[in-house]
Amino acid sequence: MSTQILLLASEEAGLPIIPTLTEVIVGLIAFSLLFIVMKSKVVPRFEKAFADRTDAIQGGMERAEQAQAEAAAALKSYQDQLSDARGEAQKLREEARAQGAAIIEEMRTKAQEEANRITAAARASIEAERQQAVTSLMQEVGTIATNLASKIVGEALDDQVRQSRVVDRFLADLEGSK
Amino acid sequence: MQVAQKVTLKVTQRSSEGFASRPLLPLCLGRSLTHSRSLALNASILLASGGFVSPGSGDFVFKPVFGTSILFTKPVFQAILAAILVAVFFLISSKKAAVIPSRTQFFGESVYSFVKKDLGEDIIGHEFMKFVPFLFTLFTFIIVNNIFGIVPFMQFPTMSRFGFPVALMIFTYVIYHYVGIRKHGLGKYLKDIAFVPGVPKWIYVILTPLEIATYFIIRPFTLAIRLFANMFAGHLLLLVFIMGGDYMLHNSMVLKIMSPLSFGFGIGLTFFEFFIECLQAYIFTLLTALYIAGAIADEH
């Protein structure tokens, strides 16, 4: 009996180093099918994921750089505008100051002129009034003096010509005595 | 390995001590032969007295799960299951191929990147992308089959059946010769192998047969054997400690007390086996990549 078992066992066990054809074939087929799945599906998908990731990261960086450049450009343009505005304000201020000064000068000149004119007019009118007063005073003084003289002299000075001649002579005397 | 052999030896000796009728087997015979024989013997001994049956190559033989065809044995199912598991996992993992990966996608990508970078790009060089799918399949298929060796309720490394490493070796063998011939032409490829440039002419007498043997016999043979033998030995080692512990547990009080030690070793070695299983998958793929790199290199 023991011989029988021995035979059976060694028949089944064999040398483990002798490959069984069935297992080789199963191994070949299983591996081939797995290889097809890996090559056609898994590897391309993973590669795609890697490529997408690279793209995403690179794209993100590029976008960030672009945004940064835009921001820098905007900052520069704002700064330019600001300095322009400052320059403009400065210019305006100076202009205003200049204008103000000019206006003040003009006003002062005008006022001076006005004052001069008023002074001159006043003087002229005073002179005219004085002249008039002198003239009328002379006439009145003449008349009064004539009247007085005629009364004193007693001579009627009816003749107009004579009268006026007498008056003129009197006035000329008067002036000459002055 | 030394420990394992010692233990196996001890056990064999011990179990044979009590049986004068049993012919002592010379242990210097081929190990596997000894194993299969002693298994058969031990089986008969077990029937007679309940002595310890040392694990042997018989433990690597499975009856068909159903029917009589050898197609329906556990290792065959495991190989198919491994292919299905790997395919399904990586299909799910890569399904979305999203820019921001999920946990599963990240894990799948990590494995893929590891094979692509460390085994493809770093070794093969600029033409590596053509071989990445092959290396990737090789690595994942082997590692899953190996890890079946410590998965509860499976606990059998598929690659300890020599047929499977042979099947994988055939792919490697065909591919590295094919790419070499396609790149250099048959004549130049063979000439480069046979006549290594830059050595004195008379050395070719020794070198040429060695080189030819290396490229056409030794490389494929060692590639398959390395994987097979590591898985075979590792599994045997676990069997010795765990079956030994089990045997001790059902024996005298002294042995009962000692049995946790054996189980402890078995558990410790399981972790060690996990390491070996990963390492061997890596080595098989690494060597394949090296052979391909050598075949397509500009000078051998």
UniProtKB/TrEMBL annotation, chain A:
Family annotation (Pfam families): ATP-synt_B
Predominant localisation class: membrane
UniProt cross-references to SUPFAM superfamilies, sorted A to Z: F1F0 ATP synthase subunit B, membrane domain
One GO process term, biological-process aspect: proton motive force-driven ATP synthesis
Free-text function comment from the UniProt entry: F(1)F(0) ATP synthase produces ATP from ADP in the presence of a proton or sodium gradient. F-type ATPases consist of two structural domains, F(1) containing the extramembraneous catalytic core and F(0) containing the membrane proton channel, linked together by a central stalk and a peripheral stalk. During catalysis, ATP synthesis in the catalytic domain of F(1) is coupled via a rotary mechanism of the central stalk subunits to proton translocation.
Family, per entry: Belongs to the ATPase B chain family.
Designated name of the protein: Unannotated protein
Source species of the chain: freshwater metagenome
From TrEMBL, chain B:
Membrane topology of this protein: Multi-pass membrane protein
One Pfam family named in its UniProt record: ATP-synt_A
Subcellular location: Membrane
Alphabetic keyword roster: ATP synthesis, CF(0), Hydrogen ion transport, Ion transport, Membrane, Transmembrane, Transmembrane helix, Transport
GO cellular component, one term: proton-transporting ATP synthase complex
Primary location: membrane
Transmembrane segments: 39-56, 76-93, 134-156, 162-181, 224-242, 254-275, 281-297
Keyword Membrane listed: yes
SUPFAM superfamilies: F1F0 ATP synthase subunit A
HAMAP family according to UniProt: ATP_synth_a_bact
Family membership noted in the UniProt record: Belongs to the ATPase A chain family.
Name this protein carries in UniProt: Unannotated protein
Species this chain originates from: freshwater metagenome
Top-level taxonomy: unclassified sequences, metagenomes, ecological metagenomes
